[in-house]
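Quick check before the chapter quiz. The format below is the same one you will see on the exam, so make sure you can read both the input and the output lines.
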Amino acid sequence: MSHQYHLSNVADIPSPALVFFPDRIRRNIAAVVKAAGDPARLRPHVKTHKTTEIVHMQLMAGVTKHKCATIAEAEMLAAAGAADVLIAYPLVGPNVGRFAALVAKFPGTRFSAIADHRDALAPLAAVSAGTPIPVLADVNMGMDRTGIALELVADLYRRIAATPGLTAAGLHCYDGHINQESRPDREAAVWAKLTPVLELRAGLERQGLAVPTLVCGGTPGFPIYADIRDVPGMECSPGTYVLHDHGYGSKYPDLAGVEPAAVLVTRVISRPTPNRVTFDLGNKAVAADPLLAKRVHLLDFPPHTPVVHSEEHYTVETAHADRYKPGDVVYALPGHVCPTVALHREALVAEGGKVVGAWRIAARNRKITL
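Here is the expected output.
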């Protein structure tokens, strides 16, 4: 095999299996820290890996601020020693109380939240327990998923600042829909959205309201935000980079020094027709996202067309199906690593070309102990 993910003890590994390569993860973290210029400019998203060990790697690299989407992820980050955790997901229902319990359990960690509606403020303020909760206004940067329209942000931000028990802590500006392959096109799209945000910030500051932090972008936009060094308080928030995947790796050459650090081990389980090969890589092992054609990248495998992806099966058509028999091992890169990791209870860990242990995907569940 010509690729660099071959494992000398693969015969002992049940498939399908997710394998992490710590040396590559460390290199990816180092590359992103270098691109940012200072680890203090980073607030990586933990959703990609959900593991304590990778958080420790980031802390060792000087990355102390983190971002997450669930209470379980926030608890895992705090338990791992993260000093500053932003839950970048609207807190509603029982999760407001769970957030308060988290703050009480880990007094050494600064927790902050986001809000995109005035009705979200009173529940947060009610659980502040005498210590103001930092809240960032969540700006709709064009995804129309969460966030408040730009023209309404100033009013919401003033409400946050005026609410006892809350502190207006900045703006959360996620623009995951900006994912053009062309660096110039991506850069133009970033600035088209960022410029009015900077104007809004300046206006709030003229009114005497501090806007200390702008949490910006994800992995596709990271190279652009990393190059912006003259905006005070701007934090870059990539997540996928720690493990990377084929979906991003094939699109963004400007993510220099970042390479896939997670691979799937799969085996041929059937040759149902003369031109079909079926693997044990169903959508319970690799995310059913993105579209089928880009869902999995089989390494060192001849030209093929994916035709079936069901719970336990991944079937391709190829003119070279006769090269394969049941039991043959193939390595694959997920098209989208973040939801793929969440499907696995643990990831095997490879050092020196062989599997040497396993890491628990600690925050894959919505709830840990709170």
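If your answer matched, good. The two ends are 46 Å apart (CA to CA).
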